[in-house]
Write a structure and sequence with these properties.
It comes from Devosia enhydra. By secondary structure, the chain is α/β, with parallel strands linked by helices. The radius of gyration is 19 Å and the shape is globular. It is 33% helix and 22% strand. The strands form two sheets. A seven-stranded mixed β-sheet has the order 12-11-7-10-9-8-13, with helices on one face. It has a six-stranded parallel β-sheet with strand order 3-2-1-4-5-6, with helices on both faces. The longest helix is centred in the last third of the chain and has 19 residues.
């Protein structure tokens, strides 16, 4: 048993556990390599995610790594995946159970994107007092949002984000669209499912328009989500999250009374590294990179998008959520 450090950790070395892997989400591979700053090139060839092989392989070696932090332990739902991730990112320890890392690491990363599982995946580590980063979305039901809100209200160190918040192509417009006049319309496109990738579209535009969403209406289907969000600033935001929209994913358009722009996020590596650095900054300072009130509003939007679709496109008002 290793003695745990008190949070926040300041400039002390940090040991992380990378926990969980679900179908379609290769974050344990990419995030572990980005944090540890190394990988086994031969083992990487067997990684089942070609996009990860591509964008990691394009990076100069010196761009990998976050100083003073190391993924020292890994556990995945399928034990064979943990062995593979450990081989690729040169992780020293493969845990037999997720809970086995308690006492051996300083913080954990829940690297799965099924929001309905995250309360139970996080619970042992929250109760043990470990800081937790939860992959997007934090949750996708009202009950689970209240659980996470209660934990954070009790002072438990928990954060969650989408890498799209850190897209370098969008960053110049975060809270800075004055050149366009008041925004009136915002469009964003994303692929795959609203439940897992809707948060990518939402967190692409949230730092640009800011908090203050009023309602959500999803008139699409499970495969073709068409989501209209109203903002208190008088902005209509339309998001499409379509299963096979791979080639047209990651675009946003900002349109105001005096101008506008269309942008696309394409640098996955830089966004992920900035996202992970934000977690490390939280571990060192105790200051979350994003107020939890913003994360909470984003989860309300995710949940409302599901509820609206299931109710045949009904308008769901954020005022219906607990204060």
């Amino acid at each position: 048993m290793v003695t745990l450090m008190s949070f926040p950790f300041a400039d002390r070395p940090i040991r992380l556990a990378m926990l969980g892997m679900v179908e379609g989400n290769g974050h344990p591979y990419s995030w572990s390599m980005i944090i540890n700053g190394r990988y086994d090139a031969e083992a990487l060839k067997a990684c089942p995610y070609p996009a990860i092989i591509s964008y990691i392989g394009r990076q100069p070696p010196e761009t990998l790594g976050i100083p003073g932090v190391e993924v020292t332990h890994v556990w995945t739902d399928n034990p064979a995946d943990a062995v593979s991730v450990a081989a690729v990112a040169k992780i020293a320890n493969v845990a037999a159970r997720a809970e086995d890392v308690i006492g051996a690491v300083d913080a954990v990363v829940i690297a799965t994107d099924k929001g309905f599982e995250h309360v139970e995946r996080a619970r042992p580590f929250v109760e043990a007092g470990l800081p937790v980063f939860v992959d997007k979305p934090l949750c996708d039901t009202r009950a689970d949002l209240e659980t996470f809100s209660r934990w954070v209200g009790e002072g438990r160190p928990i954060i969650s984000s989408s890498g799209m918040r850190f897209a370098k192509e969008f960053a110049p417009y975060h809270g800075s669209t004055h050149e366009f006049g008041p925004l009136r319309t915002v469009f964003a496109t994303m692929a795959k499912k609203w439940e897992t990738y809707g948060i990518h579209a939402l967190e692409s535009i949230y730092p640009i328009v800011g908090p203050g969403f009023v309602s959500v209406r999803n008139t699409g289907t499970y495969e073709r989500n068409v989501v209209h969000l109203k903002h208190e600033k008088g902005i209509d935001i339309v998001l499409t999250v379509t299963a096979d929209q791979i080639g047209g994913s990651g675009f946003i358009t900002l349109a105001g009374t005096e101008g506008g722009v269309t942008l696309r996020s394409q640098d996955t590596f830089t966004a992920f590294k900035a996202q992970l650095e934000s977690y490390v900054g939280f571990l060192r300072t105790g200051v979350p990179p994003v107020p939890f009130a913003h994360t909470r509003e984003l989860m309300q939007l995710v949940i409302a998008g599901i509820e609206s679709r299931e109710a045949g496109g009904a308008e769901i008002f954020l005022s219906s959520f607990k204060a």
